[in-house]
Write a structure and sequence with these properties.
The protein is of the alpha/beta class. The chain has a single domain (17-190, 240-269, 285-291), classed as LigB-like (Protocatechuate 4,5-dioxygenase, Chain B, 3-Layer(aba) Sandwich). Helix content is 40%, strand content 19%. The strands form two sheets. Strands 1, 2, 3, 6, 7, 8, 9, 10 and 11 form a nine-stranded mixed β-sheet that branches. The protein has a two-stranded antiparallel ribbon with strand order 4-5. A hairpin with a 2-residue loop joins strand 4 and strand 5 (102-105). Helix 5 runs parallel beside helix 8. The longest helix is centred in the C-terminal third of the chain and has 20 residues, at 204-223.
């Protein structure tokens, strides 16, 4: 199988190895982790916007994993689907992915075990061709965990996602010689007229509600590890674009023995714009970094 080529390099993140490495190093240096971490991290939730807006939060999660676990053999990455909503998750089960940092291999053994174990997972590399929610995470893995492999899984916001996460965790338990971590990719509330969602008005007041009320409702459920309510909450209040990925990650972490998540950081694109560029917007997207 031909390697999957990057589709958002040079857009969502730098298009050259040198610039990717420089930005990742800056993210890790400028966003130190202040929370007390567990002895072992089995899963994490990361945002997937352009690195300018959410790269530092994604970096926090992978940095936390490195601090707690030291090494990781394989990352199972549940991606948010923006264009495919099938009856099963789409597993990229063979070959490799390319980024400006080079090639990263698929853990074909684990991918095969997952598709065999779970009715909610099917080999379907084609679904990954135009989705970015997993791709933007890969350079962080290549930078921090140089020998790690991946199992990318596009996961729709459907009930199967919960059982999928449980099944993935069972496959992880059946591979005790591997150090495997699950990652879920989601952004939070997309607020403003451009997104067709502004129930509390346009401007500062509405954006504050989006962060302090709407985002937090979803974050609290994710931290408390309520996978079923995560799915319902996002459908009702439009406060996450990857609820299926989050539900799968929570279910996996719970099956692996975790009882509560740790929120590392929470921000939104408007805050980032104001800090970096002194500008604000009528639109805003929320981002959170959580580990389990």
């Amino acid at each position: 199988m031909a390697a999957r080529k990057p589709i958002v390099a040079g857009k969502f993140y730098p298009g050259t190895e040198k610039d990717c490495r420089t930005e990742i190093a800056d993210f890790l240096a400028n966003r130190p982790i202040k929370a007390k971490l567990p002895e072992k991290i089995v899963a994490g939730l990361v945002p997937h916007a352009g690195w300018t807006f959410s790269g530092d939060l994604a970096g926090m999660v992978f940095s936390a994993i490195e601090k707690a676990n030291k090494t990781v053999d394989t990352f199972v990455i549940f991606g948010a689907t923006h264009s495919h909503f099938g009856s099963a998750a789409a597993v990229y089960d063979k070959g490799s992915w390319l980024t400006p940092l080079g090639e990263i291999k698929i853990d074909e053994e684990l991918a095969a075990a997952i598709t065999k174990k779970s009715k909610g997972a099917q080999p379907n590399p084609d679904v990954h061709a135009y989705e970015h929610s997993i791709e933007v995470q890969i350079p962080f893995i290549q930078y921090i965990f140089k020998n790690a492999k991946i199992v990318p899984i596009m996961t729709s916001p459907a009930a199967y996602a919960i059982q999928l996460g449980t099944d993935v965790a069972e496959c992880i338990k059946a591979s005790p010689d591997k150090k495997i971590v699950c990652i879920g990719s989601t952004d939070l509330t997309h607020y403003g007229p451009g997104y067709g969602f502004n129930p509390h008005g346009i401007g500062e007041k509405g954006i504050k509600w989006a962060k302090d009320v709407n985002d937090l409702a979803f974050i609290n459920l994710a931290v408390e590890m309520n996978a079923h309510r995560v799915l319902n909450e996002s459908m009702q209040n439009q406060n996450a674009c990857g609820p299926g990925a989050v539900a799968a990650t929570i279910a996996a972490a719970k099956t692996l023995g975790k009882t509560k998540g740790i929120l590392l950081a929470h921000t939104h694109s408007n805050e980032v714009m104001e800090i970096k560029y002194g500008q604000t917007s009528e639109e805003s997207v929320g981002y959170a970094a959580i580990v389990y």
